[in-house]
Amino acid sequence: MPLRRLNVLFLCTGNSCRSQMAEGWARALAADLPPYLEIDSRSAGLEAHGLNPVAVSVMRESGVDISNQESSQLTDAMLQQADVLITVCSHADLNCPALPPEKRKIHLPFDDPAAASGSDLEILVEFRRIRDEIGQSIDALLQQFLLETLQQTEGDVFNRSDIEILSRERVHQGFVPVDAIHLRHRLFAGGWSETLRRELAVRPNAVGVLLYDPQRGELVMIKQFRSGAIDSGQSPWMLEIIAGLVNPGEEPVDVARREAKEEANCEISEIMPVFEYFNSPGWCDEKVSLFCALVNSAELQGIHGLEAEHEDILTVTVSLKNAAQMVQRGEITNAMSIIAIQWLTLNVHRFNQY
Prior knowledge:
By secondary structure, the chain is of the alpha/beta class. It is built from eight helices and 15 strands. It folds into three domains: 4-152, Rossmann fold (3-Layer(aba) Sandwich); 160-201, no CATH class; 206-351, Alpha-Beta Complex (Nucleoside Triphosphate Pyrophosphohydrolase). The radius of gyration is 28 Å and the shape is elongated.
């Protein structure tokens, strides 16, 4: 995999605390990155105020030594060398020199611990707080750089050809068949993993359809028994959206129409695809196609389901606002419904014309 090098420059007003701690964190955390991504970090200030000894002390507590770093004033040469400029205070962000278009600028503002007042202990606590905030932000930023690097080379790695299946056998044939797979795969750091055994639940693809009445701002949902929630400490009768499995030869949109009729006695006319996602790819190959369909909620009520499949399904009407609040309160706890409700909350403006 080709090597990517990034020169990162942290900038603040005086280069005494925040940018110095950011540089130290970046150096320390970059040591754990895969070998195809190298981060060269340094820091500077619009002025040079000297390295703050309290910053040095609190960083040492976290195992990061910044005592040999120097407080430097920003130069044109530093800007020229940097691939990414990261401002860590608002003053530096507002007063940063103009950058060429090929340079990337990111603003990560932090409070100035040197401005803290109070006892020595109170000031130390503030330095530690800012130290930890900076460390978490730099860690997230480096992971972002790593993901960007992987995306740039996705055509060469991390696809099906980078997995070797050594054996696969059906070890359970029941309501949910299970295969045992022995495999190995390429590693981010290069080379191959050891041989791994993974159990894979083999499932047909699934379809979910959110029934929405834009005139009333209501969702038509269902309540039914779910064996997976028996030991959860909550009621196994869960509030969900309409869903079902794809039979051989069926298209997902046809499944959405079929399940809406079976589970809510609803004939769908207007339906739109939302997106597809894997439900739980760590152990199952089930892929979900999610739809949203427009309905008249006033016409939908009662108990439905196929007797042959032992379905006992109650139709429930819930306002979108209440459904979103139920998600926040942890009262709607199944992934498909949470995803669908959050999607509609973000996209409800698309239905204003109805």
